[in-house]
UniProtKB/TrEMBL annotation:
Keywords: Signal. Residues 44-185 form the FAS1 domain. This is Fasciclin domain-containing protein. InterPro entries: Adhesion/Biosynth-related (IPR050904), FAS1_dom_sf (IPR036378), FAS1_domain (IPR000782). Coiled coil: none annotated. Residues 1-22 form the signal peptide. The keyword Signal applies. The keyword Signal applies. It holds the Pfam family Fasciclin. It comes from the Bacteria. Gene3D superfamilies: FAS1 domain.
Length: 189
């Protein structure tokens, strides 16, 4: 696993989706303040449709050209920042990320929020328990995330020290699962 390095504020905005090979990781469940939890996807929906419940996040996925990845057969776990998480970013951070010249930054941001394979909350709980309180999982970019318990939810910390908490219930899709998080994670530089 490569070491995550904090990048510019614009780079912090880019982490939610990715590409890569299938693998196994674990994702989260927690409290109920989330925009994606309100419209949980049925297992017949793909990840792109579940993420589409959040227009802002769906717009970032579309701008990065990642809709096809999230509609494909490969299973993924998405740590999806809520609208409230996006609102916590510094003013202007998301501006212009939908421009073609920003596609690499946006893709890096999204990949920092995607794990290979389908990782349910039960998988996360098992991994944390087996790891004596913490588990390490790699993103689609190969960057490590540390998972710990935070009450009924999970705390997800990237290598740069940025930490997010899962919110709401996991949202299953036919090709993976979405876990809403309350903070945008940092992609590697």
């Amino acid at each position: 696993m490569r070491r995550l390095i904090a990048t510019s504020v614009a780079a912090l905005l880019l982490a939610a989706c990715g590409q890569g090979d299938g693998g196994n990781n674990a994702a989260a469940a927690g409290e109920s303040e989330t925009n994606l939890s309100a419209q949980a996807g049925a297992p017949s929906q793909d990840l792109a449709a579940v993420v589409g419940a959040s227009p802002r996040l769906a717009g970032l996925v579309k701008a990065a050209g990642m809709e096809k990845v999230l509609s494909g057969k490969e299973p993924y776990t998405i740590l999806a920042p809520t609208d409230a998480a996006l609102d916590k970013l510094p003013a202007g951070s998301l501006d212009n990320l939908d421009q073609p010249e920003q596609k690499a930054k946006l893709t890096a941001l999204l990949r920092a929020h995607i794990l290979p394979g389908t990782i349910l909350a039960a998988d996360l709980a098992r991994a944390v328990e087996n790891g004596k309180g913490k588990a390490t999982i790699a993103t689609m970019a190969g960057e490590p995330l540390t998972i710990t318990r935070d009450g009924e939810a999970f705390r997800i910390t990237d290598a740069a020290g940025q930490s997010a908490r899962t919110t709401g219930s996991e949202q299953p899709a036919r090709n993976g699962v979405v876990h809403s998080i309350d903070t945008v994670l940092a992609p590697a530089s």
